[in-house]
Amino acid sequence: xxxxxxxxxxxxxxxxxxxxxxxxxxxxxxxxxxxxxxxxxxxxxxxxxxxxxxxxxxxxxxxxxxxxxxxxxxxxxxxxxxxxxxxxxxxxxxxxxxxxxxxxxxxxxxxxxxxxxxxxxxxxxxxxxxxxxxxxxxxxxxxxxxxxxxxxxxxxxxxxxxxxxxxxxxxxxxxxxxxxxxxxxxxxxxxxxxxxxxxxxxxxxxxxxxxxxxxxxxxxxxxxxxxxxxxxxxxxxxxxxxxxxxxxxxxxxxxxx
Length: 257
Hints:
The protein is of the alpha/beta class. The chain has one domain: TIM Barrel. Helices cover about 50% and strands about 15% of the residues. It is built from twelve helices and eight strands. An eight-stranded parallel beta barrel has the order 1-2-3-4-5-6-7-8, surrounded by seven helices. α1 runs parallel beside α6 and α2 packs parallel to α3. The mean pLDDT is about 95. It comes from Pigmentiphaga humi.
């Protein structure tokens, strides 16, 4: 698990193109399928889906078994929420509504032993259930955890250069839907949202920080990659299931006519 997490962070920081999906169903089988299919990572959505801690723990373990990185989108940025998923061995955290540099610094501190405020224990999975020495666990944990700051508010866009400059921010993750709401519009491709996306991408490039985005499907992947986005969360396990079900329903309807 430590190796998987470190490789993911190294590739993320190198702005290699990475592809994954949201897991919104608390089922470890979905994680195994995504990892077995070759996705670079999954995002376990503890913000907008009904994961309890035990289900998150199973899904993180499934990601390890499938050889893919498990990032957890937190329900809140509190210290206990961060600590819980890192102790499980999660590769990183996707933190909603990061609006300024102080918020980013607080999150970074909660994910780090050295120079941070992460509560120490090597007894969970992340510490090998006690097998890792204190020094080794601290070093591997600090070097392997990724912090993805979700930029989904006008304030976050206004402060994006300062957020990108915070040491330890590994990715600026664009949430176009919440950006649209924040700007008072109802279209993901509204000019105000497009301008905000461009500003985040420019800030990431200037700071040498990866930029990520959620897309409902892969249709616009190449276009966003050309703009400088390197991490893509494409759809979710539920949206993929719905698309397959709709396709089957349509074929059955055609067969009946």
